[in-house]
Amino acid sequence: MEKDLTKNYELAWDKYSEEDLKKVFDLSEKYKNFMSKCKTERECVKEFIVLAEENGYKNLEEIIKNNEKLKPGDKVYANNMDKTLALFVVGEEPMEKGLKILGAHVDSPRLDLKQNPLYEDTDLALFETHYYGGIKKYQWVTLPLSIHGVIVKKDGTKVNVVVGEEESDPVFGVSDLLIHLSADQMDKKAAKVVEGENLNILIGSIPIEDKDAKDRVRKNILRLLNDKYGIDEEDFVSAELEVVPAGKARDYGFDRSMVMAYGHDDRICSYTSFEAMMKMDKVDKTCVTLLVDKEEIGSVGATGMQSKFFENVVAEVVNLTSDNYSDLKLRRCLTNSKMLSSDVSAAFDPNYPSVMEKKNSAYFGKGIVFNKYTGAKGKAGSNDANPEYIAEIRAMMEKHNVSWQTAELGKVDQGGGGTIAYILAQYAMEVIDCGVALHNMHAPWEIASKADIYEAVRGYCAFLLEA
């Protein structure tokens, strides 16, 4: 019989035993609980630290403070401003030989409160917002929204805020125009149907008792906030309050084969990378999982991938694992590293087939997705992975029977996107984008396949073991 030379990306569901299916659904339950609980960068990092410490990880700051050294098998983490986290499992080989890195981001598109957000108009109190990341603004109206974040008072006291997640909590929302008066609105382009400056959330309508006072509803809101949190209006200036969809992650579909959640991009890859990292104990080369902030707005700032945080932390670990630290050792360590940029991809959607090219699209249930390149219009701004590295990755996935597929982000010139891959590639390390395919990417509620979540953990494990 002639050898079949074609490549078919099969559904992962077809290979699962009953035991495998139980693992798939058990993992998704853990993931749903995480996604229901963690809707901001700070909440993600806080939860990951708790879980890491339960698995034997120690704070790198404490190791440095106690003048300790690191040895193979040691597990440490570094927390950057409560919004970026780096986890290390120290390997047997010198760090100069390189790291095995999983890198994802924990920020997601949302609405942020402005520094002076509170105002009153026609006896209604509202918060002004500024959207964060790339959103379709019209998707954020008439949704139940919650407020998560932190308020820091002048004395340094931190007040954590979560309102809208419990059944007994109030929720908030951005209003929309009734269809009966929408003739002009309906003629607008989608980008202008809802303007960014109009994404104001309604928060109250009861006035204070003093009928002669101005802005009576606004003042009542301030009184309520002072009673609950001990804050005044000026404290909003030093607050980081994020408006996100209210509600829990849910099973999706009659067969419960998918998960609907806010923030799959990119917490689905953050969580699966973290899960894989927790399975690592004795490793040859040092393994790293890097969970960063600010990817959705260009990876800028002190907590974004473009900051020196990661390089500085790697330098500290190199120093603690060797007798004679040098900048050359650090440079060799980074250049000899290999990385999976753990970020989501777009799944083919039969409702919108015109923007995708079927042979180079990702599909639900066919496993983890590798994107050789991202970018837009001639691959601009992308990391273009080397074929030698892709061949290594293929062999790793095959060895561990991981379901995987390869894709582009839509048709040529249709649009595009970017990740943190190109930033790490600046060290001349090998990098490829690799993650889970989604429907509704950047919408308030995104959809993912449970099989792909499971295969992502397996794929990331294979990489950490074999790279």
Automatic annotation (TrEMBL):
| Matches recorded under SUPFAM superfamilies | Aminopeptidase/glucanase lid domain, Zn-dependent exopeptidases
Q: Which GO terms describe its cellular component?
A: cytoplasm
Q: List the Gene Ontology MF annotations in alphabetical order.
A: aminopeptidase activity; metallopeptidase activity; zinc ion binding
Q: Which GO terms describe its biological process?
A: proteolysis
Keywords carried by this UniProt record: Aminopeptidase, Hydrolase, Metal-binding, Metalloprotease, Protease, Zinc
- What Pfam families does its record include? Peptidase_M18
* EC code: 3.4.11.-
Q: Which domain of life is it from?
A: Bacteria
Listed InterPro entries? Peptidase_M18, Peptidase_M18_dom2
Name the cofactor(s) required for activity, per the record.
Zn(2+)
Recorded family membership: Belongs to the peptidase M18 family.
Name the record gives this protein: M18 family aminopeptidase
Lineage, opening ranks: Bacteria, Bacillati, Bacillota, Clostridia, Eubacteriales
